[in-house]
Automatic annotation (TrEMBL):
It comes from the Bacteria. Its EC number is 3.2.2.31. Pfam families: HHH, HhH-GPD, NUDIX_4. It catalyses: Hydrolyzes free adenine bases from 7,8-dihydro-8-oxoguanine:adenine mismatched double-stranded DNA, leaving an apurinic site. One of its GO terms (molecular function) is purine-specific mismatch base pair DNA N-glycosylase activity. Residues 35-186 form the HhH-GPD domain. Binds 1 [4Fe-4S] cluster. The lineage of its organism: Bacteria, Pseudomonadati, Bacteroidota, Flavobacteriia, Flavobacteriales. This is Adenine DNA glycosylase. It comes from Flavobacterium jumunjinense. Adenine glycosylase active on G-A mispairs. MutY also corrects error-prone DNA synthesis past GO lesions which are due to the oxidatively damaged form of guanine: 7,8-dihydro-8-oxoguanine (8-oxo-dGTP). Its cofactor is [4Fe-4S] cluster. InterPro entries: A/G_AdeGlyc_MutY (IPR005760), DNA_glycosylase (IPR011257), HhH-GPD_domain (IPR003265), HhH_base_excis_C (IPR023170), HhH_motif (IPR000445), MIG/MutY (IPR044298), MutY_C (IPR029119), NUDIX_hydrolase-like_dom_sf (IPR015797). Keywords: 4Fe-4S, DNA damage, DNA repair, Glycosidase, Hydrolase, Iron, Iron-sulfur, Metal-binding.
Length: 342
């Protein structure tokens, strides 16, 4: 258990002060874990504070509308996390009488909670001896122990899980799990870690074999799809806006947007303007951005242009700017509205 002892000693001297580390209450621990999936602590912390202020208990979260939850989540991305969070809160309140699941196996029944998240909540809230394995853990273990198994392969999860479980001190699983995640997040970072100050630098196989930058091994590359979005900002005579809810499954499900004209490939502004004029015949058409805004998601790059279309009639479906700003939008659209209309 030399590894565990060194790691925990490092953690006790170097850990960041974070609000979810000062409680055994499963509700804020669960909130923090969902928010921090695919999100850095610096970005996630304000959202955690906003959620725990707005929804002090799981009952408050369950009783909120989906739009309230999505609006508070706006800008964090991966919005299915917010919808799953809301669904899980309703399940806890309606099916479990508000009593939070108290074991790893029971936690897996919550929507949006996988093996890693269940292990984190079970160990932090209930001291259940289940090791966490996430990207940080893959990186730390692969480097320190020199494991060259491709982490995108099916056998990697079992191999790393067994090693992490073997290293886990049964008497204090929470502190070990916190420690290895913190070590991966702040010391054994993906790019150019400072190995000169690492507590494992005399034992780390990757450092001895000059493989720090090549571990962990991940052979499967994410294929990125390019999409071309042209948003039509339809304004009526009163200066009100037409917006719509995205109801097709995929990115930004149930968030709001302007009318969307999606092209299968890149096109010139001249061609797009010509098409819009022919289809919509606006009184005034303004190109809001000559250069595409490129919004990068994990599997997609969105090439976005905005066009303002002004009409001389009152549109019954149009909403005021104040009403519009209460709705949840993808952050790229929200930022556009803020910089152009507020």
């Amino acid at each position: 258990m030399i590894f565990s002892n060194i790691l925990i000693e490092w953690y006790l001297q170097n850990k960041r002060s974070l609000p979810w580390r000062n409680t055994k209450n499963p509700y804020p621990i669960w909130l923090s874990e969902i928010i921090l999936q695919q999100t850095r602590v610096a970005q996630g912390l304000p959202y955690f504070e906003a959620f725990t202020t707005e929804f002090k208990t799981v009952f408050d979260l369950a009783n909120a509308s989906e739009e309230q939850v999505l609006k508070l989540w706006q800008g964090l991305g991966y919005y299915s996390r917010a919808r799953n969070l809301h669904a899980a809160a309703k399940y806890i309140v309606n099916d479990l009488n508000g009593v939070f699941p108290s074991s790893y196996k029971e936690l897996l029944h919550l929507k949006g909670v996988g093996e890693y998240t269940a292990a984190a909540i079970a160990s932090f809230a209930y001291d259940e001896p289940v090791a966490v394995v996430d990207g940080n853990v893959f990186r730390v273990l692969s480097r320190v122990f020199g494991i060259e198994t491709d982490i995108s392969s099916s056998k990697a999860k079992k191999e790393f899980q067994e090693l992490a479980q073997e290293l886990l001190p049964i008497e204090d699983p929470a502190i070990f799990n916190q420690a290895i995640m913190e070590f991966g997040a702040t010391q054994c970072v993906p790019q150019r870690p400072d190995c000169s100050v690492c507590v494992f630098n005399t034992k780390c196989v990757a450092l001895q074999q000059k493989k720090v930058e090549s571990l962990p091994v991940k052979l499967k590359k994410t294929k990125v799809k390019n999409r071309y979005f042209n948003y039509l900002i339809i304004k009526d005579r009163n200066g009100d806006f037409v917006v719509e809810k995205r109801e097709e499954k995929g990115i930004w499900f149930n968030l709001y947007q302007f009318n969307l004209l999606e092209n299968s490939k890149s096109d010139t502004i001249e061609n797009i303007v010509k098409h819009i004029k022919k289809e919509y015949n606006p009184l005034v058409l303004i190109v809001k951005n000559e250069e595409e805004v490129v919004h990068k998601l994990s599997h997609q790059h969105l090439h976005i242009r905005f066009f303002e279309l002004q009409f001389n009639e009152v549109l019954k479906e149009a909403v005021s700017l104040d009403e519009m700003m209460k709705l949840p939008f993808p952050i790229v659209i929200h930022n556009f509205i803020e910089s152009n209309y507020l």
